[in-house]
Each structure stands twice: as structure tokens, then as C-alpha cells.
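It would be a great kindness if you could assist me with a short task in structural biology. The matter concerns a single protein, recorded as an amino acid sequence and a row of C-alpha cells. Kindly check, if you would, that the fold set down in the C-alpha cells agrees with what the sequence suggests. Thank you for your consideration; the sequence and its C-alpha cells are set out here:
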Amino acid sequence: MSHDDFDFEPIRGLPAELPPGEKLLWQASPQWKSLVVRAYHVRKVAIYFGVLILWRIAVGISNHHTVAAIAGSSVVLSVLAAVAIGVLCLLGYLNARSTVYSITSRRLLLRHGVAVPLTLNIPFKMIEAADLRSFGDGTGDISFRIAREQRIGYLITWPHLRAGQISHPAPCYKALSNAAHAASLLGAALAAESNAVELTGTTAQPALPGRDPARPAFAAHTAAA
């Protein structure tokens, strides 16, 4: 008996066999440590509890509390911090383990979901532009701007979304260890689909139908980890 939760998939990460003529070009999953930091904000949570502990110590000293009282309350906060951070790390690990990003010759697919697997299907014709962002830890994100008339469900797609875009969510391949390679493959696939391509560096810059060919499909950024 198989214990694979996704053994119903004919191809890993895909809900069904690909149609004739469509090829699977690339697949990957997020790096869970980077996903925990950037999507689950574990560092911010750690800093928050650190500030709380320092504040409790400072208040205890200023109010002449006993060392035992200060230590006791600090330990309680430390335990709460450890539990919160542990839960976020576990969620990030499970999410990364259940997520598969796929690029085919005609579309993007995003399979995710720990309890209930969901697959987001994005044909190339829906993509207006893409953004490649590299981080100091060696990973990168690729986010996609989707045509305005198309709607992406925020809650059912999170955390695989670009931060800060709530009214018009942008799907995002997060915490990739080979983001530049994936962006290059995607650029070439988009170019083949639209049959118009301009190369800049190592990334293909397709001129998508209805879009200004002078504006690159990929905007590259570098950010801190």
C-alpha cells in the first residue's frame, strides 16, 4: 500500500496527463527554510517575541520585581515564542513538501495544499509579464502579472502569491533554488508561444500579444534574504 498522498497523479504535480503536443519543461518545489522566512515571516515573529522578552525584563527591573518573577515571565514568553516559531516552521515545511511548480510548453501549473490538494492552471495567454527576484540566500521568486479580467483567489492560493498585491493577486513561484534557470526556460517557452523574442543576457524577453514589445517580460531584482 502506498503512503504517498499524491499517488493519484499520473505525473507528479499534474492533475492529468498532458494533451498531445504539450511537453513538461521544468518542475521544482520551494526551499522550505526560505519559504518559512519570506512567506510565514518567522524572523519577524522571533523579533517580536524578543522585543516582548526585553520589554518584560526592563519593566521588571524598573519596578523592582524579584529575579525569580522576571525569569519566570521571560521563560513563559520564550516557550510561547518557541511554540509559535515551531508551528510556523512545520507549516512551511509541509507546504513546501506538498507544493510542485511546473512549466510546460503552454502553461504554468501550481499544485499545493497540505490537507486538500489544489492545482492552479495558468495558460500562457493569461500572463502579461513576469518578475524575477533574487535573494541573498541564493533563492529567488518568480511572480506573474495576470490579465485584469482573470481573477485569482487570494486565500486558496496563499502563500504562493507576490506580497502586497491583494486586490489583484499575482501568483508566485517562491523560494526556488534555481530561479534564474526557471525564468530562462519560461522566457523561451513564452517566446515560442508568441513567436517573437528579444534576448537580454540569459533571459528570454518575449513580446506577448497585446503588450508593448519594448517592455521586457521579466523584470529582475535582487533583495536581501
About this structure: The chain has a mean pLDDT of 83. The first strand starts at residue 24 and ends at 28.
